[in-house]
Design a protein that fits this description.
The longest helix has 16 residues, at 25-40. The chain is an alpha/beta fold and 305 residues long. Helix 1 packs across helix 8, helix 1 (25-40) crosses helix 9 (286-301) and helix 6 (191-201) packs across helix 7 (217-227). The protein starts with 11 loop residues before the first strand and ends with a helix. Helices cover 34% and strands 14% of the residues. It has two domains: 12-79 and 240-302, 3-Layer(aba) Sandwich (Rossmann fold); 87-191, Glutamyl-tRNA Synthetase, domain 3 (Alpha-Beta Complex). The protein has helices at 25-40, 61-71, 87-99, 110-119, 173-176, 191-201, 217-227, 262-272, 286-301, and strands at residues 12-15, 44-49, 81-82, 103-106, 147-150, 159-163, 167-171, 181-183, 206-210, 233-237. One of its GO terms (biological process) is tRNA modification. Residues 14-258 form the Glutamyl/glutaminyl-tRNA synthetase class Ib catalytic domain.
C-alpha cells in the first residue's frame, strides 16, 4: 500500500475530531494548535471527522463541529473527510496486511484476555488494558475468529520517535500492548488502522493532537511501516483538565463551546498553549487574534521539524 503523499517540502496538517458531541475547551486546544502549526508553516490544514465508532457518534455532531470551527475562523483547506465512508479502503489495507502475514484473525474476548493474563500472574490495573497474550497468534484452534489483529514483529526493539514538544519517546509495543486490534469483533474498524490509512491517503506530514493520544503513536508507526507509508512528524499538546484534575472530555461533562463568543473561547485555548493574551480581547476579531497567535506560534515552535 502507498499513501497519497505530498510534494517535497509541503506541509499538510489535520484536525480529526470524533463526533461524539460538540467541541469543548479541551478539543479546541488541539484544533487551534494544529491550525496554527499549519499556518505558521505556510501549509494546508484539513479536517477529518472520525466517525467509525458509530455507536458512540451522535447524529449531527460532525456537522455541528464544523460549524463551531468555522465560527472560530478555523476553516479547512479542503472538504472534510468522513471515515464512515471509507470502509472499502480500510478493507484493502487489512487485506494487504493479511497477505503479508502482518495480520491474523482472533477469537478472544476481553474476558478471555483477562483470564489468560491472570494465568500468567498479571492482574489488570485500574483504567489500563491488559496486553494481548498472543493466544491466537498461531491459529484459532477450532474457534471462530471475532476480530483481526496486527502481528507485532517478533524480537522487535522498542519503537522510538521524537515528539516536537515531549522530546524523545519510546514504547515496547510487544510487551506493553501486544498484537493490537485492526477490526473489532463487532465489525467496526479500529482507530489505529483507520487513522494510519487516512493520514497516508491525505498526505499528512505533521500531526498535532492532544497528549492523551501520544501512546497511540508507536502502534501507528508500526502500521505505517507495515503498509509502506510515511511517518509524519508529531506534536502532542498539553491536556486541559477539569476541576477534578482529570482530562476535560465529553465523558466527564465538558461543556460545549459558546459559539456566541468565539474570541473568548480561542483565547482560553491559546492560554493553554502558552500563547500571549490579547491586548484588547473585547475589540479584537477572531481573524486578528489568529494572526497574532500564528506569529507567536512561529517563535515558540520555530516552525515544523
Amino acid at each position: 500500500m502507498t499513501g497519497g503523499g505530498a510534494p517535497a517540502g509541503a506541509y499538510i496538517g489535520r484536525f480529526a475530531p470524533s463526533p461524539t458531541g460538540p467541541l469543548h475547551a479541551g478539543s479546541l486546544v488541539a484544533a487551534l494548535a494544529s491550525w496554527l502549526d499549519a499556518r505558521a508553516a505556510g501549509g494546508r490544514w484539513l479536517v477529518r471527522i472520525e466517525d467509525v465508532d458509530t455507536p458512540r457518534c451522535i447524529p449531527g455532531a460532525g456537522e455541528f463541529i464544523l460549524q463551531q470551527l468555522a465560527a472560530c475562523g478555523l476553516v479547512p483547506d479542503a472538504q472534510p473527510l468522513w471515515q464512515s465512508a471509507r470502509g472499502p479502503t480500510y478493507q484493502q489495507a487489512l487485506d494487504h496486511l493479511v497477505a503479508e502475514g502482518a495480520a491474523y484473525p482472533c477469537a478472544c474476548s476481553r474476558k478471555d484476555i483477562e483470564k489468560a493474563q491472570l494465568a500468567l500472574g498479571h492482574a489488570r490495573e485500574r483504567h489500563a488494558a491488559l496486553p494481548y497474550p498472543g493466544t491466537c497468534r498461531h491459529g484459532l484452534n477450532g474457534r471462530a475468529g471475532r476480530s483481526w489483529r496486527f502481528r507485532v514483529p517478533a524480537g522487535l526493539p522498542p519503537t522510538e520517535w521524537t515528539d516536537r514538544r515531549l522530546g524523545a519517546q519510546q514504547q515496547d509495543v510487544a510487551t506493553d500492548i501486544g498484537d493490537f486490534v485492526l477490526r473489532r469483533a463487532d465489525g467496526l474498524w479500529a482507530y489505529q488502522l483507520a487513522v494510519v490509512v487516512d493520514d497516508a491517503a491525505q498526505g499528512i506530514t505533521h500531526i498535532v493532537r492532544g497528549e492523551d493520544l501520544a501512546d497511540n503513536t508507536p502502534r501507528q508507526i508500526l502500521l505505517q511501516r507495515a503498509l509502506g507509508v510515511a511517518t509524519p512528524q508529531y506534536l502532542h499538546t498539553p491536556l486541559v483538565c477539569g476541576d477534578n484534575g482529570e482530562k476535560l472530555s465529553k465523558q466527564n461533562g465538558a461543556q460545549a463551546l459558546d459559539l456566541g463568543q468565539p474570541v473568548r473561547a480561542l483565547e482560553q485555548a491559546a492560554r493553554a498553549l502558552g500563547l500571549p493574551a490579547l491586548a484588547h480581547p473585547h475589540n479584537t476579531c477572531s481573524g486578528d487574534a489568529l494572526a497574532q497567535w500564528v506569529r507567536a506560534w512561529s517563535r515558540n515552535y520555530n516552525g515544523p521539524s
